[in-house]
Description:
The protein is α+β, with helices and mostly antiparallel strands and 370 residues long. Helices cover 36% and strands 25% of the residues. It is globular, with a radius of gyration of 22 Å. The two termini are 31 Å apart.
Amino acid sequence: MKAHRLVIELSPSCLVVTRFDAGVVADVASARFDTPLSGFTPSVLDGIRATLEGLLAELRVQGGDTQATVILSGPGAAAGAHSSPAGVTPGGAIHSARLSLEAICDWPLDHAPVGVLPIARDRAGKSSLNQLHLVAFSINPDVLEAVDGWVTTAGLTFNGALPSDAVRIYRAVAQALKSGACAEDRTDAVLHLDSTAGLLVATKSGSITLVRPITIGLEALVDALLRPIRPAPDSAQSVTIPREQAERLLTSVGIPTPDAVVPLDPPVRGAALLPALQQVLQRIGIEVKQSLRFGLSESDRAACTLGIAGMGACVPRLGTVLAGLVGAPASATAADDAAIGIAETLLSLPIARHVLVPVEQAERRTRQRV
């Protein structure tokens, strides 16, 4: 029986399973929950065990030889970016990153699985701060054990888990340092958006100057398109778009202009979709604007551009509209920032080798290596 490698994305709203063959995405199956999960306790996960097994059957995956890595988004999973000044030893930087992680976790870290991973230093330059940038992450031990049992009960081999924010931070910071602006008088901010959330990273002269989470993702725009739409202001009937069609519209039409013709049945003008979309866009814009306001100096904000990366780069006009709401010139997305999902992103990064497992399992793996 052929063994596969799986990445399971679990959030309170949905479950996505991606099957990889030889490191390449072979198939994807997903399910949305009618009621958002209240957490990731054993009883809650037992309630969605049949959903997981159904997706595995859809992907034709069977057998305990299949390794599964879980990307967790929601309560019990936390990650944060940390920047350590030049001159601090790597050990001191890791210690500081762990302390900063304690401030965002609502569980004690003494006996919890914790990861602290250096990403990169600022690029050398005239004004480089030469900071070392790290990502620190943890999963509540009870949650991790529950996820382990849930995956194992489905007949899979649990490889480990990571908070989705940890993957997002590693990718965004590494990309920013790889392609960040070198102009002495310009700050480039890039909003990395995926389905559930985003991350705002700003660079200047080869240095990271800002890393802030954005709590809204592309799912919110899809949800907005699911609301009943009136083809015209005086129309007596409304049109309802199925989720799959809404997802396709977001990547094909994007954020339409008022006069654009949107290919529905019957066709509608962009003005019919904009009221619902604008509510979500304004929420994203406010988060970005506030992050820039409190994270950058006034002079850096005045010379700041805004670009879109990640899956958000697949949404036409999203970058232009958000830049307008924020009041910053729009910049092009970095050419080498491939618009791929978080599962595929994970397997392309070194952080994939630093998954978290229950403490006892980690100690057992260490003894086996010795």
